[in-house]
Amino acid sequence: MKKPGILILLLLCLLGCSRVDEGPEVIAEIAAKIPDDIGSNRGERNCELFDLSIEDDRVVLNVWNNAGQGHTCPDEWLAGINREEYLVDGPRWRPIDHTLPLDDEQNLLFDETALYDDPVIREIPEGSGISMLLAATIDMGPARRIANRFDVTLDDSGNVPPDLRQAIFEQLGNDTPYGVKDVNRRFNTLWVYRAGQPVYVISDGECEYAMKYYTSAQNPALTSEDVLIELGNLFEQFPEDYSYEVRLFSEDVHILDLDGLQYVMVDEFGNSYDRLWCGEIEVAYTVVE
Predict the structure, then answer these.
(1) In the chain, where are the structural domains located?
(2) What is each CA distance from 170 to 1, 217, 248, in whole angstroms?
(3) Cα gap 167→176, rounded to integer Å
(4) Nearest to 149 by CA among 159, 164, 161, 138
(5) Of 18, 86, 94, 156, which is least surrounded by CB within 10 A?
(6) Whether pTM exceeds 0.85
(7) Residue 157 — φ and ψ, nearest 5°?
(8) What's the pLDDT tens digit per position in 67-119?
C-alpha cells in the first residue's frame, strides 16, 4: 500500500537552519529551548489510520494516530484492522532526531496530546485494548458531489457507502512516486536533524527533500536504517536526473513549519520526504558511500 496522501524555500543558517519566512532569529530562539537531555525520536515506530464519515452532508476524513497512546502499532493488531473500514499507513519509522510540536506562542510541547483541548481517543477496533488519537479531521467536500463523481448512490442512513469508501481510499493511496504535493498540517512543528546523524536526501536538481518516515508496507525489508543506506540501489522508477544520498551534516539542521504548510514527496516504496530547501545548500556535509 502506498502511503496515503491527504490533502521557494531558501535556507539560512543560525544554530542550524530555517526557512527564510520563519526567520533565523525565530529558529534560534526556539532551538535554544530544546533541553540537552531530550530523548531522540529516531527509530520510533508509529502508524496512522484513516476512516470516513458524513457530517452535515459533507464527507470527512478522520486521521487517527498512536501519539501518546502507549503502544507502537503492533503487527498483530495492524494485521487485524478491517481494510474495508480503514486505510492503514504503517508500520513506519522516523529517521529524524526530534519532532517537536509548538503551540501558537511558539512554546515547545513535549506531549502531543497537549495540543488538543478535548482529545478524542477511541479503541480501534472496539474491545481490542489498542487506542488511537483523533489527530485531524479533513473536510473533503459535499457528500453528494463526491458520490456522483464515483457514480455511487447515497442512501438516507448518513453512512458512507462501502463502494464510495473504497473508491476514496484507492484515490488517497494513489500517490505518484517522486511527485511533490502541498500538505497542510494542523500544527506548528520543529523538525531537527542532528549533526553527524544520517539524513536520507532526494534531490530533484532544484530542491532537496529529507526522509521523515520509512515504511515496510511495500518492501518488508525496510524496518531499519541499515537498509536505507542502500535504498538508492533498490529504486526502479527513480527519475534519471534525481539523486539519492545519505548525508552527515556538519551542524544541526532545523526545519520550522509555523504555517503548517509543507511540500512532501513519496518514493516508490511509500517512504515520505519533506522539503529541506531549494537553491544553494549552505550546510556542509559528507556523503556516506
Answers:
(1) 11-42+177-287, 46-92+110-172
(2) 10, 15, 37
(3) 17
(4) 164
(5) 156
(6) no
(7) -75, -20
(8) 889 999 999 999 999 999 999 999 999 999 998 888 777 778 776 666 666 78
